[in-house]
């Protein structure tokens, strides 16, 4: 059967590249046949994480319409409300609503946002388009914060979550107990497990599902974690943690399932005492940092699976400590995020490179974290450098706007999320710059095949793509430098198909180009920091 692509609105036709006329740095093959085996990308894979102190900035009345549109652009996903703020901000049903306390007004704003994002969902009819994980405190009480006890969590659920989500309980994917307990409990595993038993025994989250442990992980080479030559926090305690928490987690699973949650940052803003943590674009995009991530995801996802749980990277971004200027807020963050989502869905463990070739192990999703630039309760100072969506820091608290990273989530959510046949694609390298190309394949439908080709390098790359048939579509994510200086990885913006999100948060739609292959081959050039999605339709081989 010949490959056919019909002209339609939103599709433009490019001149056929024909056979390669210039140097080819690498080559890939996109098999038009459906992939036998391979993994899947769950329907609610993408997500954002927002600190409690920023509810008004993202989901208050003036911010909500645009933020709901930014969620809606992605189709489906999971919103996480929490982070360190959940252990320092008390819930108080009678308090005046400020950004230093969690109130029923905050929960009402979250519910209203999900109502908008789920406008076409009928209650009780399957999993909502968007769900929310709501974080509450579970951390050792102190003289300053004596309220961090099971009774507080129970009040959060019964006086806050329950009334706010009446008639929409299925929107609550889970209630998360505590944040980064390895740090808050000062590596005291037994104290942490004792508190979990007390909270669980008090039915602190009922009737909602529960999620733990949301551990932080060391920023160190995976080999150092493997041989335990660095402080590994709770990394190797996951078996003991999940043995204690999995029964309660599975006993009350909701529409979004049951999972264990983890955090990951490849770099950190502060690194005076440990240069390995220092944030640079080359470090962010290096194979070494990807290997660290793959090692963690594969190790912990396997531990979760052994106990009947999924695994979600519930807090993820470029650099711990609210990001790094010039690394986290530029186009490099988008190309990093795109490749990282594929590595989360199909980790290739560096200690056993071929063991997960068919993507049988992986995360069910990721949440990119958003915070203030310096400290909680000071949004007027600006956005965290790593924010995927920027809030309005002015008193107007207007429409949030997409940062570079958002466009990676948009491309992934619309063209990879919910697909099957996930596999890493071999890249045959002919020149050094070709080695920076990462390639992933998914099957979008009965006769739809896609290849994601991602250039994580700082030089253009020409690829030969072998794809039987005549016609193909290409969507392209590119760095955007409005100054005209030609910046690429350090450009302040990103576009997809030359387009950006509208001022109201809506996406005008993809506009792929269409090309024609010759003799089953075509050439694609990827600029520095660019990614393309090649789509074949109507050809089953």
UniProtKB/TrEMBL annotation:
InterPro entries from the UniProt entry: GH, GH79_Enzymes, Glyco_hydro_b
Supply the name of the protein. Beta-glucuronidase C-terminal domain-containing protein
Task: Tell me which species this is from.
Answer: Micromonospora sicca
């Amino acid at each position: 059967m010949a490959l056919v692509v019909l002209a339609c609105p939103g599709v433009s036709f490019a001149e056929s590249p024909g056979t390669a006329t210039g140097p080819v740095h690498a080559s890939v093959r996109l098999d038009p046949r459906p992939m036998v085996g391979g993994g899947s990308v769950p329907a609610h894979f993408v997500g954002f994480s927002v600190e409690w102190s920023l509810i008004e900035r993202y989901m208050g009345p003036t911010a909500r319409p645009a933020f709901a549109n930014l969620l809606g652009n992605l189709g489906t996903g999971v919103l996480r409300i929490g982070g360190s703020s959940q252990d320092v901000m008390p819930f108080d049903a009678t308090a005046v609503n400020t950004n230093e306390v969690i109130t029923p007004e905050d929960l009402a704003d979250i519910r209203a946002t999900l109502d908008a994002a789920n406008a076409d969902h009928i209650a009780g009819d399957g999993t909502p388009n968007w769900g929310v994980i709501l974080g509450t405190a579970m951390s050792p009480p102190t003289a300053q914060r004596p309220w961090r006890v099971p009774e507080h969590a129970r009040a959060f659920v019964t006086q806050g979550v329950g009334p706010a989500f009446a008639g929409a309980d299925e929107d609550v994917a889970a209630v998360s107990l505590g944040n980064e307990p390895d740090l808050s409990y000062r590596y005291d595993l037994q104290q942490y497990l004792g508190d979990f038993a007390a909270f669980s025994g008090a039915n602190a989250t009922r009737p909602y599902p529960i999620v733990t442990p949301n551990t932080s992980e060391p920023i160190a080479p995976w080999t150092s974690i493997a041989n335990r030559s660095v402080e590994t926090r709770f990394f190797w305690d996951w078996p003991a943690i999940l043995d204690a928490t999995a029964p309660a987690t599975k006993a009350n699973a909701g529409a979004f399932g049951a999972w264990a949650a983890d955090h990951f940052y490849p770099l950190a803003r502060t690194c005076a005492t440990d240069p390995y943590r220092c944030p640079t674009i080359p470090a962010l995009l290096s194979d070494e940092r990807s290997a660290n991530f793959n090692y963690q995801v594969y190790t912990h996802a396997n531990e979760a699976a052994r106990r009947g749980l999924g695994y979600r990277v519930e807090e993820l971004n470029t650099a711990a400590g609210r990001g790094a200027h010039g690394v986290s807020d530029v186009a490099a963050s988008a190309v990093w995020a795109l490749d990282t989502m594929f590595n989360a869905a199909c980790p290739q463990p560096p200690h056993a490179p071929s063991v997960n070739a068919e993507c049988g192990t992986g995360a069910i999703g990721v949440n990119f974290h958003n915070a203030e630039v310096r400290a909680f309760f000071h949004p007027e100072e600006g956005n965290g450098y790593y924010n995927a969506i920027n809030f309005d820091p002015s008193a107007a608290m207007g429409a949030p706007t997409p940062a570079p990273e958002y466009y990676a989530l948009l491309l992934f959510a619309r063209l990879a999320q919910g697909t099957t046949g996930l596999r890493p694609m071999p890249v045959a390298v002919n020149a050094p710059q070709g080695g920076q190309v990462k390639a992933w394949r998914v099957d979008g439908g009965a006769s739809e095949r896609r290849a994601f080709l991602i250039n994580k390098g700082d030089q253009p790359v020409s690829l030969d793509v072998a794809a039987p048939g005549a016609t193909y579509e290409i969507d392209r994510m590119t760095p955007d430098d409005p100054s005209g200086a030609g910046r690429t990885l350090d450009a302040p913006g990103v576009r997809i198909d030359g387009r950006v999100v509208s001022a109201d948060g809506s996406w005008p739609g993809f506009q792929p180009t269409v090309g024609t292959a010759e003799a089953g081959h075509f050439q694609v050039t990827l600029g520095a920091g660019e990614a393309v999605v090649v789509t074949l339709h109507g050809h089953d081989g």
